[in-house]
Amino acid sequence: MKSPTIIGLASIVPGLGLWIVGRRRHAVLAALAVIGTGLVALFSPWETLSTVSCYAAFLIWVLQSYYAVSEARLAAQVASGQVEKARNSEDIEPPPLHLNRFDKLAHKARELIRQQVDPNEFVKVAVPAYSMSFWKGISSHKGYYIGLLQNELVIVETDFLGKPASTRRVLCSGFETAEFRRGLWLDCFVLAIGNEKPMKLKVSRFLRKYSQEIAESLSNSHDI
Q1: Domain boundary among 80, 100, 133
Q2: pTM of the full predicted structure?
Q3: Residue 142 shares a structural domain with residue 57
Q4: Is residue 222 within 8 Å of 175, Cβ to Cβ?
Q5: Which tens digit of pLDDT belongs to each residue from 178-219?
Q6: Does 54 share its domain with 99?
Q7: Measured between alpha carbons, how far is 30 from 23 in angstroms, rounded to an integer?
Q8: 19-35 per-position pLDDT tens digit
Q9: Are residues 138 and 64 in the same domain?
């Protein structure tokens, strides 16, 4: 098992980090994209195209490094038992046509969570969420889905491509910290397990009728 630091260093060579973590098709694509745009930047007779290609090569290089490090971090978490590897969730039932955009997001979240639990378990409600540090910028962005079962919260973290990567289940009474903060545009769940650093999961206020139900279940054991 390679550490995220080692994978990050290996990713200096375009595609190498992804190759090591097992994303070989993406590794080849990343290497070809960086090399291709780099060659265009070097040999293009048009200055504008050369400049754009140079920026594109650098952006792809940064993104493939971030992707590789994210995969290495996930593998380390799964190996340590902190989270479970997510199940495949390709056959998601499409939402009813009469739903508005936000209800469709909640429907998709619920279906995705449903595929991460056992068939006999009922998913009451689910919402998409994300976390991002203002100071660290876009590189700290992580996507999540939060689902409520009978007395458990299921937290699914997505990978760089937006697909389910890891799953964590916690009893509603098992959080050291459980807060729900309402905002003008974004609401926020602040959740901490044991001595871990609290997760701040942001949810659109237009999904509040769903996130509020999750908050009410958590309030059975915590003051929110």
Answers
A1: 80
A2: 0.75
A3: no
A4: yes
A5: 889 999 899 999 988 877 788 899 999 999 999 999 998 888
A6: no
A7: 10
A8: 998 888 999 999 999 99
A9: no
